[in-house]
């Protein structure tokens, strides 16, 4: 075609269609034909221009032009239309690169075409597609369906394009949780040519409107035709001139996961269209984003507020979001103290088994009587209502008896794990002002508190048991104080009243069907609040509590045997601990009695859970998010095979009586989909931190939006329109490296999706606390057989932008865990250091050909090839969870009699081999 040739295109690049239609122009049939032609995609890249003449029965013609915008600019379409239109009774329709109908028509979702988008911002054919924004909450099943939302605002003051860009960046930063929002701006200038600029202005809660607009204007002027550095820009802003005589569509389909098109016509209002793929952005999120964008444009233009002070949500939206995050409590649950609830169960089921440890079982009547005796003994030793009593005991019958006795004495218990370092135990006693500690350890540090053996409570004379202040504890009195880690390095005690535990049981019992037929395990340390759920969840619903011995918790095979033997029906686990149990189940494939597994304490690793559900169809998996400060659990989410396949990060909706919302840095309610800090209010909020009024005031706040006492969790999340919460990690996992805000969980997710990686941890490290330049990200990988650190790094480099690629990668045999079953970052560094230090020594050591060689094979399988026969397991950075894996490996190579206990006594491959040889000889003799 001559018109194409004048623009430098070969004639074959244009396709000409000439249609004669038996209908008059201006009719509904004619309009439908024009709209269909505008929507029809360009299917062949070697034909970037389609020209259609439509001649109607009354002699009027329509001209429809569809072109690849990366080949022909808007001015080029104008030129072609001018050359071809000619007669006065013809009209021109020009479309950009991919599309909806003419005129930016809005309506219900319509199928998208397959045409490419505009020039610079859209990747070339065959390159990676833009990443879907997590905040969009799109449904992949709806991919290919377009959502469009009209936008109308008062025309902003000049310079309006920088202001539009500033408003878009500001709203995007709120949805993404701050930082440097990325967007691409495509502007049709006065000559009809396109300029493309990639922007990422810095935005904080202190950002001023003038500064933000100036940043955007500077970028638009200085960085024109600057493409995005990587194809994950979530949002594109397209500004085009109005053509009064034509119907012009900038692009036929959204060029980005979310595309905002504005048409400048010089009128009092600016009209636009927000368009997105429903697979990337859900309908409710799109509507909300459009509303917030319009509000931002008008507010920034009118100067009614600074950028950092902009309120995205109006009052009605705020009420709707808060209502979605609230679950109403059951009517008038019984808030009686824990020990009163227990007494009722004991009277109703006196002869039912309450507590078993090894071969010893206590009925509810016996447990009630023994705890009464313990309470009387504590009173005799001077314990009064409101006192704090330290309890440092191994898991066993005495532990539960003493805890219940403390509550019956009107006091609150302060649990301390016997494995804790002496310094931490001493700090807890001093900080809590504890005057009496019940312990069976002769090594408990002397801090002036009286130490009583549990046996001493039952034999103490009762001469003053009924002395002054015999008032029983009430629902509002403290039940326990659990010390949790503090960001300053000082543990802090969380004070939880009796009423909170009663509310937790009232909220969970109906949905989970808790009752007297359940057999629970006490698996966790009482210094970890999961034990509150295990002990009182069982005993206050009439269940049978099985105390798991310390070494059994560290030996998955033995724990699996216990589940089988005791026919356990309800199990509570951190995901890290459950993964080892699941591995045993994969090998053993026994028929467990489990009907319910409750996860908590850390994010769930979904891998392998689908296989578990297939093997155990009668077992439900429940993911529960919670914090010590909100009484163990705050949400619950059943894990289904569909949710597992989708990689869901949802922790569910608020428990009845609890309320959750997501807030920005200023405490403002975030819209659905937006990232922010999770706030928790309602029945589970603790009384605060013991003797830490300053920290209590900082974290336990009166929420201005609701007037309720609320806990700022420090956890990142986003809320779905149905009230479900996605848990996205900790705020302190959101680090800043070279000016970029980085979510460590995002990097870990990329690493664990690699088939060569079994598990991974990403941590922020620095050579000095004051040296910001020395900050780096470090990735620790548990590799599958044949996996390579270099290959994992290469894959991550293909997925992550440069600033998110860890500077340091290291393979470790397993991720060391803390006492509570969470990843121990300090242990990671120690483990790598130990591997490096022992490698030269081990290289020159040759094992003998006896059982030592067999044992060394197992050690090396877990700890790495550098291990020698005389290298001490603990000197190599070994810990209790690694010990579990070494014992499992030893059993697989034939040393079936080895346990974790023996490994602690014989910590080298040579020693454990000699022990196994002697044990075998003894058994044979």
Automatic annotation (TrEMBL):
Q: What is this protein called?
A: Carrier domain-containing protein
Q: Which GO terms describe its molecular function?
A: phosphopantetheine binding
- Give the species this sequence originates from: Streptomyces monashensis
Report the SUPFAM superfamilies cross-referenced here.
Acetyl-CoA synthetase-like (SSF56801), ACP-like (SSF47336)
Record's compositionally biased regions (Low complexity) = 467-476
Q: Which GO terms describe its cellular component?
A: cytosol
Biological process, per Gene Ontology:
amino acid activation for nonribosomal peptide biosynthetic process; antibiotic biosynthetic process; secondary metabolite biosynthetic process
Name the NCBIfam families for this protein: AA-adenyl-dom
Family matches, as SMART domains:
PKS_PP
- Where would I find the Carrier domain in this sequence? 846-920
Coiled-coil spans in chain:
none
What's a Pfam family in this record?
AMP-binding_C
Question: What PANTHER family does the annotation carry?
Answer: FATTY ACID SYNTHASE, NONRIBOSOMAL PEPTIDE SYNTHETASE
Q: Where is this region: Disordered?
A: 98-130, 445-476
């Amino acid at each position: 075609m001559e018109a194409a040739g004048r623009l430098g295109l070969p004639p074959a690049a244009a396709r000409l269609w000439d249609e004669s239609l038996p209908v008059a122009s201006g009719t509904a049939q004619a309009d439908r034909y024009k709209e269909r032609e505008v929507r029809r995609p360009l299917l062949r890249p070697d034909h970037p221009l389609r020209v259609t003449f439509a001649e109607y029965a009354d002699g009027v013609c329509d001209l429809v032009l569809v072109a690849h915008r990366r080949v022909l600019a808007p001015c080029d379409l104008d030129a072609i239309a001018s050359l071809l239109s000619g007669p006065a009774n013809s009209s021109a329709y020009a479309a950009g690169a991919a599309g909806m109908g003419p005129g930016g028509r809005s309506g219900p979702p319509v199928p998208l075409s397959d045409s490419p988008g505009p020039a610079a911002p859209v990747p070339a054919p065959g390159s990676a597609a833009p990443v879907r924004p997590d905040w969009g909450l799109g449904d992949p099943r709806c991919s290919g369906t377009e959502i469009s939302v009209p936008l109308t605002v008062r025309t902003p003051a000049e310079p309006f394009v920088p202001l539009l860009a500033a408003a878009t960046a500001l709203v995007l930063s709120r949805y993404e949780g701050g930082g440097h929002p990325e967007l691409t701006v495509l502007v049709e200038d006065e000559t009809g040519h396109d300029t493309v600029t990639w922007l990422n202005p810095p935005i904080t809660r202190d950002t001023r409107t003038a500064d933000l607009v100036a940043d955007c204007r500077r970028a638009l002027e200085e960085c024109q035709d600057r493409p995005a550095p990587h194809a994950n820009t979530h949002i594109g802003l397209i500004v085009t001139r109005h053509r009064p005589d034509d119907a012009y569509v900038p692009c036929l389909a959204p060029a980005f996961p979310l595309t905002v098109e504005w048409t400048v016509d010089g009128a009092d209002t600016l009209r636009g269209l927000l368009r997105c793929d429903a697979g990337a952005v859900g309908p409710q999120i799109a509507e909300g984003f459009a509303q917030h964008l319009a509000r931002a444009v008008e507010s920034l233009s009118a100067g009614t507020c600074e950028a950092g002070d902009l309120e995205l949500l109006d009052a009605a939206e705020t009420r709707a979001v808060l209502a979605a995050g609230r679950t109403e409590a059951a009517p008038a649950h019984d808030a009686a103290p824990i020990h009163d609830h227990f007494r009722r169960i004991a009277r109703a089921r006196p002869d039912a088994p309450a507590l078993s440890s090894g071969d010893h079982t206590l009925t509810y009547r016996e447990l009630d009587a023994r705890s009464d005796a313990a309470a009387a003994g504590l009173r005799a030793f001077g314990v009064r209502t409101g006192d704090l009593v330290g309890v440092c005991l191994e898991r066993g019958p005495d532990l539960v008896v003493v805890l219940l006795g403390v509550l019956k004495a009107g006091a609150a218990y302060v649990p301390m794990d016997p494995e804790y370092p002496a310094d931490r135990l001493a700090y807890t006693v001093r900080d809590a002002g504890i005057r009496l500690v019940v312990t069976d350890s002769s090594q408990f540090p002397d801090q002036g508190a009286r130490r009583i053996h549990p046996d001493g409570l039952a034999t103490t004379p009762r001469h003053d048991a009924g002395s002054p202040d015999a008032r029983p504890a009430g629902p509002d009195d403290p039940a326990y104080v659990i010390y949790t880690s503090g960001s300053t390095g000082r543990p802090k005690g969380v004070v939880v009243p009796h009423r909170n535990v009663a509310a937790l049981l009232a909220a969970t019992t109906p949905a989970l069907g808790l009752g007297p037929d359940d057999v629970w395990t006490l698996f966790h340390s009482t210094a970890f609040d999961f034990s509150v759920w295990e002990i009182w969840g069982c005993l206050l619903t009439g269940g049978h509590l099985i105390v798991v011995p310390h070494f059994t918790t560290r030996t998955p095979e033995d724990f699996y045997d216990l589940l089988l033997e005791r026919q356990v029906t309800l199990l509570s686990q951190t995901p890290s601990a459950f993964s080892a149990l699941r591995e045993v189940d994969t090998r053993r494939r026994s028929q467990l009695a489990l009907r319910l597994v409750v996860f908590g304490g850390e994010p769930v690793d979904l891998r392998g859970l689908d296989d578990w559900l297939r093997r155990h169809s009668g077992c439900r998996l429940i993911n529960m998010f919670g914090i010590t400060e909100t009484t163990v659990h705050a949400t619950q989410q059943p894990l289904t095979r569909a949710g597992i396949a989708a990689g869901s990060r949802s922790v569910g909706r608020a428990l009845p009586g609890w309320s959750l919302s997501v807030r920005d840095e200023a405490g403002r309610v975030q819209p659905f989909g937006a990232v922010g800090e999770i706030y928790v209010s309602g029945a589970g909020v603790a009384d605060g931190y013991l003797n830490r009024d300053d920290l209590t005031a900082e974290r336990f706040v009166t929420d201005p939006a609701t007037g309720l006492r609320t806990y700022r969790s420090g956890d990142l999340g986003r809320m779905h329109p149905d009230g479900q919460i996605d848990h996205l990690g900790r705020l302190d996992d959101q680090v800043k490296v070279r000016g970029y805000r980085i979510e460590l969980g995002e990097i870990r997710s990329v690493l664990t999706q690699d088939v060569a990686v079994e598990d991974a941890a990403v941590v922020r490290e620095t050579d000095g606390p004051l040296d910001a330049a020395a900050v780096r990200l470090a990735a620790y990988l548990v590799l599958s057989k044949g996996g390579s650190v270099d290959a994992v790094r290469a894959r991550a480099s293909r997925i992550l932008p440069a600033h998110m690629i860890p500077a340091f990668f290291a393979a470790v045999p397993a991720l060391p865990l803390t006492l509570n079953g969470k990843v121990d970052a300090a242990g990671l560094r120690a483990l790598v250091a130990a591997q490096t230090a022992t490698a030269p020594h081990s290289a020159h050591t040759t094992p003998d050909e006896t059982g030592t060689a067999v044992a060394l094979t197992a050690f090396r399988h877990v700890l790495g090839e550098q291990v020698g026969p005389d290298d001490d397991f603990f000197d190599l950075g070994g810990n209790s969870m690694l010990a579990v894996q070494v014992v499992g490996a030893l059993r697989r190579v034939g040393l079936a009699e080895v346990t974790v206990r023996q490994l602690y006594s014989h910590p080298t491959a040579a020693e454990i081999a000699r022990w196994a040889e002697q044990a075998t000889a003894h058994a044979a003799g």
